[in-house]
Design goal:
alpha+beta; 6-stranded mixed β-sheet; 4-stranded antiparallel β-sheet; 18 strands; 24% strand
Length: 354
């Protein structure tokens, strides 16, 4: 391993050994702040988010954000090894958060340190954020306003260092159909379950007028239903849950409004903040990825990218299938390759903005 990779792997081992479950990442925040400070990067902190600006920051230039997250999910019950004990076996580095998204954190940190004193046609900010796994209020939602204007972002998540140009958003609707109770034997009342079933049939057949060129049609799935108190009473209430995978063809608020208008049942969104993200092939973020031989795809998973109201690309070391799985690992060679590719990416992006 070269010096940068060795340093990145050492930092990742320290992160793995320091539990950082979502909303409890203070100690990994301390580690990352100290690491950047030791390299003279003058890091700043908000809650458990750590960030730094490259030298020569000029508000007249566009700003590129390098972002990944240092929080983790809880370890799966089926772990066969200590999730907080970093273990190297051959090329594999085992440990909770190694793949999602510690490898991206350390590779982006090394990349930022490489470029932070170089003259670029854009400003550079590194943000290592918290609470990504729970979309918490003290993670990227709190950090973005503190960073000022951002024009584009490179988000580190395990994609095999391929370029995810899009990901769908998510709206969960809690729906309630209301009827009138009565005796089932006499056919009394208004059956709320039947109202719900009619609405579910509408949802199964529903098609939106517009479709995203990149993300395709909006996905709708009814995933839960609950009604009735006993066999001989017509239910006056039926509740069901709808999972809506949104696209950039409509805002989340527009999507909710259209579905509400189509249903007899009440439909209340739990949140509308998890938005779809899509960036076109003509954007410099995508063109730079193509220039270093990266293929593009639509990601099936969501990330903090959905909170970013500016063009963004998701690309990082590791594989998505290892995320949240027992005995999570990343390859040290993947980290080494990621550092090289990230550096090539920044250089290509700089050429496009020169």
């Amino acid at each position: 391993m070269n010096t940068k990779t060795a340093e990145a792997v050492e930092l990742l081992q320290a992160l793995i050994a320091t539990p950082s479950l979502s909303r409890d990442e203070a100690r990994t925040g301390d580690l990352l702040h100290a690491f950047l400070a030791e390299h003279g990067a003058a890091p700043e902190r908000l809650h458990n988010n750590v960030w730094a600006r490259a030298e020569g920051f000029d508000p007249r230039r566009p700003t590129l954000l390098l972002n990944s997250h240092h929080d983790t999910v809880r370890p799966a019950a089926s772990y066969t090894r200590d999730p907080f004990a970093p273990a190297v076996e051959g090329d594999r580095l085992y440990g909770l958060g190694s793949n999602d998204a510690g490898a991206s954190v350390v590779a982006l940190a090394e990349t930022f340190l490489t470029f932070r004193r170089r003259k670029l046609p854009f400003n550079l900010i590194l943000a290592l954020s918290a609470e990504e796994e729970c979309m918490g209020e003290h993670g990227m939602r709190a950090l973005l306003p503190a960073l000022g204007r951002i024009d584009m972002a490179l988000v580190g998540e395990p994609t095999g260092m391929q370029a995810a140009t899009g990901e769908r958003g998510l709206v969960v609707l809690d729906c309630t159909a209301r009827g009138k109770s009565g005796h089932a034997a006499r056919g009394e009342g208004i059956n709320a379950l039947y109202i719900a079933l009619d609405d579910i049939a509408r949802l199964r057949a529903f098609r939106f007028e517009r479709e995203s060129p990149l993300l395709g049609p909006i996905g709708i799935a009814v995933t839960q239903i609950e009604a009735g108190t006993q066999h001989n009473v017509v239910p006056d209430v039926c509740r069901f849950v709808v999972d809506v995978r949104t696209t950039d063809a409509y805002t989340n608020e527009e999507t909710v409004g259209i579905l509400r208008a189509a249903l007899r049942s009440e439909a209340v969104p739990r949140s509308t903040r998890i938005r779809a993200a899509a960036v076109g092939d003509d954007h410099p973020l995508v063109r730079a990825a193509a220039a270093i031989g990266r293929s593009t795809f639509v990601s099936p998973t969501t990330s903090d990218r959905t909170l970013m109201p500016f063009p963004s690309l998701k690309m990082g070391p590791g594989e998505s299938a290892r995320s949240h799985a027992a005995d999570e690992y990343v390859l040290r060679s993947e980290i080494d390759s990621a550092i090289t590719l990230y550096e090539q990416y920044i250089e290509q992006l700089a050429n496009l903005y020169a």
